């Protein structure tokens, strides 16, 4: 079961132990189940948990929407604000750069709780969205303000991407945790998808107008972009006001034994994580493909432009790939809550599908070599399947991280892996910033990273320390 990873004292719950029960055997890779698991031990759950989940999910949605504002409308933004290809790549690059203080937000969540962390995060988002709306006529100053706003929004990334498992453990019962983690984590991706839809539909593409260089056309495009910026600022401000009014750190009574159990300190948690080879395996299995895919999605319009895909079509492809991933991810998480102990099997299925879909897309783009048909249908299908398989794996990975390294706090374990994911995304976007004339190499990164992740998960030995604690308490 992997319980040697933590001591009996560290696993000792703060709740009074129930009567002694037979030791269960959750399903693992080495063999089948040894019998039906007994019902999970549960504390008290509150209806307000759904309101807390809604507010946090909306915060993640808004952060993803603001981060992905510019990629889907990069052609229009170049005309309206004079952005170069380097500027567009840097606007996306501010997302992974914002993860530089990730360890501070981990510490803040561990020491001060969810409320303080969420309020600080949402205030950074309000400032960032507001900076992008400052009306100055000088384009150079305006570009600097937009870059500053994107950086502040990027600083909110560590919380909205790391805190989902912590929130689900704190507020939800064991048979709802994976579902809550999926909703809280995937709404950030849904915000990115909304940007693919909102941007191209509200902002007209320059190549769809007869006189591209006319002053009236440029001003019209700029006005539409500013309308999007003002709308996003209003939405972020509303979410911040709601969180300020009500967002408690924890419920009055914990929902499970694991939620009430003592955890390792901040320093000891990092020592445990860095010395656990199994954790490092699944951390790389998550960080490499998700980091590559996030960077690829952020510049999807740039990647599809050379094969004559319009800004609107690229937006729809990005939108449906993420929406499909969110729907399937929540369904998979609910399935994981129902069966318990099958996280590795689910990940193997998802990563196998991602490897096949990414290979199909990459080969399709190489029409001069493979002679595969390059049609709208094949592009839509391959991209959407890739998004479905990779995005839906996020909450499953998060739950597996927490189970593997328990009693390390959820915010710390997931913070480390999302930091690594953003490092990989940042490296790719760094090269893209200085080498943005050819994108075929970026497409080849997708199947390679998915295949590597699949091999790592195949070699991984799963364990369920937190689940064991909720099923029966060792005394």
Automatic annotation (TrEMBL):
<dbReference type="InterPro" id="IPR036259">
    <property type="entry name" value="MFS_trans_sf"/>
</dbReference>
<keyword id="KW-0458">Lysosome</keyword>
<feature type="transmembrane region" description="Helical">
    <location>
        <begin position="114"/>
        <end position="134"/>
    </location>
</feature>
<feature type="transmembrane region" description="Helical">
    <location>
        <begin position="88"/>
        <end position="108"/>
    </location>
</feature>
<dbReference type="InterPro" id="IPR049604">
    <property type="entry name" value="SLC49A4-like"/>
</dbReference>
<feature type="transmembrane region" description="Helical">
    <location>
        <begin position="414"/>
        <end position="435"/>
    </location>
</feature>
<feature type="transmembrane region" description="Helical">
    <location>
        <begin position="50"/>
        <end position="67"/>
    </location>
</feature>
<comment type="similarity">
    <text>Belongs to the major facilitator superfamily.</text>
</comment>
<feature type="transmembrane region" description="Helical">
    <location>
        <begin position="316"/>
        <end position="333"/>
    </location>
</feature>
<feature type="transmembrane region" description="Helical">
    <location>
        <begin position="277"/>
        <end position="296"/>
    </location>
</feature>
<feature type="region of interest" description="Disordered">
    <location>
        <begin position="1"/>
        <end position="34"/>
    </location>
</feature>
<feature type="transmembrane region" description="Helical">
    <location>
        <begin position="227"/>
        <end position="247"/>
    </location>
</feature>
<dbReference type="InterPro" id="IPR049680">
    <property type="entry name" value="FLVCR1-2_SLC49-like"/>
</dbReference>
<keyword id="KW-0325">Glycoprotein</keyword>
<comment type="function">
    <text>Mediates H(+)-dependent pyridoxine transport.</text>
</comment>
<keyword id="KW-0812">Transmembrane</keyword>
<keyword id="KW-0472">Membrane</keyword>
<protein>
    <submittedName>
        <fullName>Solute carrier family 49 member 4</fullName>
    </submittedName>
</protein>
<feature type="transmembrane region" description="Helical">
    <location>
        <begin position="441"/>
        <end position="460"/>
    </location>
</feature>
<keyword id="KW-1133">Transmembrane helix</keyword>
<dbReference type="GO" id="GO:0005765">
    <property type="term" value="C:lysosomal membrane"/>
</dbReference>
<keyword id="KW-0813">Transport</keyword>
<feature type="transmembrane region" description="Helical">
    <location>
        <begin position="186"/>
        <end position="207"/>
    </location>
</feature>
<feature type="compositionally biased region" description="Pro residues">
    <location>
        <begin position="14"/>
        <end position="27"/>
    </location>
</feature>
<feature type="transmembrane region" description="Helical">
    <location>
        <begin position="345"/>
        <end position="372"/>
    </location>
</feature>
<feature type="transmembrane region" description="Helical">
    <location>
        <begin position="378"/>
        <end position="402"/>
    </location>
</feature>
